[in-house]
Design brief:
Elements lengths: L1 H32 L6 H30 L4 H34 L1 H7 L2 H20 L9 E2 L2 E2 L8 H40 L8 H7 L9 H33 L4 H49 L24
Antiparallel strand pairs: 1-2
Helix pairs in contact: 1-2, 1-9, 2-3, 2-5, 2-9, 3-4, 3-5, 3-6, 3-8, 6-8, 8-9
């Protein structure tokens, strides 16, 4: 029975990696085809996320299949496994940059326009990824557990002092990523809700700019349709990241305090499966979300145009002849 459960677990993990790899390839193709019509910063971040996840999934699939075809020393299998682990943290780094970018765009528009460029985002993602890789690869230099007694070991199974310190350092970094992503994501929705309340104070129909000024609405902070869609997209990705990563972080102290507990062993296996689910869901979330948002926008736009065409004055004179159409001046760089 235990062997059947183990085989089922391996089959589920392999299926998740295959589906995730196909999804990331499809997502990269979608981003390539729509790059000219989308925000260049958003395209950059989504490409980084998709490429990072694709490398991790293809690498793990290779580690699962290659030993059945070629004899590879266990030590080098462990080394490759640790190298791929950096892409797990790298995915969290990209999600964090996405959350901070949206937060700055909605709450600090002037700072965002002046400093947050495509080059700046690319460098930030690269530096965070390098830091995550350096943290992940320290076991190669004796700080952290990855190989012992002829078999691969997880850092959470450490028994030596330095190895335990590394496990908790990894816990600190991963937990900080999760909490920062959750914090900035919540601030994005707070900002969007405030903007929504301001918009509700203005009549939906066309009014003059003077009326808008009297109502005191700052339309420079009104997000575009793409920004709203991307904020929702970022929320889905961040929620999935936190939900799938936190069990992995929780398993570290559980394994340290209860190393022989059967419950901890089962919980750790579930945490590993959730990590695979995270890599599988990422591309499908933003590809599906993009399609739904575009469809919803088209339907809403069509209804809005129909409503405007039907709105006339009592003498059948269109309202646009009487009132000036307001211009919602949104910076192009946001």
């Amino acid at each position: 029975m235990m062997m059947d459960v183990g085989a089922l677990r391996q089959w589920l993990i392999a299926t998740a990696f295959v589906l995730g790899s196909c999804g990331n390839v499809f997502a990269l193709w979608i981003l390539y085809k729509s790059a000219k019509t989308r925000n260049a910063k958003h395209v950059l971040m989504l490409r980084c996320l998709a490429v990072n996840d694709l490398v991790a999934q293809l690498g793990m699939l290779t580690l699962m299949v290659l030993p059945k075809m070629v004899s590879i020393p266990i030590y080098w299998m462990c080394v490759l496994f640790v190298m791929l682990r950096a892409f797990g943290l790298g995915s969290g780094c990209v999600a964090l940059v996405m959350a901070i970018e949206r937060w700055l765009a909605l709450t600090r528009p002037f700072v965002y326009q002046q400093y947050v460029t495509k080059v700046f985002l690319g460098r930030t993602i690269f530096l965070l990824w390098v830091f995550a890789a350096l943290l992940t690869y320290t076991p190669f230099f004796g700080f952290g557990l990855f190989y012992e007694n002829g078999k691969c070991c997880r850092y959470r199974q450490a028994t030596e002092v330095l190895d335990i310190v590394y496990a908790y350092l990894f816990l600190l970094f991963g937990t900080t990523l999760c909490f920062c992503i959750a914090y900035f994501n919540s601030q994005v929705f707070v900002a969007l809700s405030r903007i929504g309340r301001k918009q509700e104070k203005v009549l939906i129909r066309r009014v003059s700019r003077a009326i808008i000024t009297q109502n005191g609405v700052n339309h420079k902070n009104i997000p575009t349709t793409e920004e709203l869609a991307f904020a929702k997209l970022m929320a889905f990705i961040c929620i999935v990241f936190v939900a799938c990563w936190m069990p992995q972080m929780i398993s570290i102290p559980l394994t340290q305090f209860f190393p022989t507990s059967k419950f901890c062993a089962i919980f750790s296996r579930i945490a590993d499966v959730l990590m695979c689910v995270y890599f599988m869901l990422d591309p499908y979330i933003y590809v599906l979300h993009q399609h739904v948002e575009k469809t919803r926008f088209r339907i809403g736009f069509t209804r809005q145009r129909s409503s405007e065409n039907a709105t006339t004055t009592p003498n059948n004179t269109p309202t646009t002849d009487l009132l000036e159409k307001p211009r919602f001046d949104v910076p192009e760089t946001v």
